[in-house]
Amino acid sequence: MRQDTPQLNTKQSALLIMDFQPAVLGSLDEPSRSAAVERAQTALSWARAEGLAVVHVRVALTEADLAGISTNNRAFAGLPGTGMLVEGSSACEIIDNLKPERDEMVVRKIRFGAFSTTDLRTQLGVARIESLVLAGVSTSGVVLSTIRDAADQDFQLFVLADACADPDSTVHSVLVERVFPHQAYVITTPDLPQLI
Fold first, then answer.
1. How far is CA 195 from the centre of its chain?
2. How far apart are CA 178 and CA 168, in angstroms?
3. Fold of the CATH domain 10-195
4. CB of 136 within 8 A of CB of 142?
């Protein structure tokens, strides 16, 4: 962890666990999938022990959501009719290893980022959250989109590089090493105790 990495005020911080669902994890090879889940579990245990807010973010689309996808959206336009990412399917549920506890926020989104199609900003504002620790799959999807949006909203950001993964390991490396440090502190799960 870099010397200039600040410490967290646990009462104003949240861990975001994003897209740890079979439908998304299936895009990863087994070693990457297992490693990301294990590190996310470590981060989740740490956040619960330290009293951080925990937010679980999942992607799932209703039939109405699917019908509303524009043909201009290259990433999502092919979804209608495939049965992929459909709300209510087991593939869109948060995996058992990371199941939310009763008092933890769960946010359903219908695009890549955690903010653009949800009320997450409002919920974080009500909870007076100013700092976010991010774990998610994929690095080039939900993590990238969420960092960009959250940085524009002036959140202090920490990215858990080892609790994120991407189908393309080169893209993951470029993002965590070259792109994310411009807007977030890039750390790993062993660094978490030093944030408090």
1. 19
2. 15
3. Rossmann fold (3.40.50)
4. yes
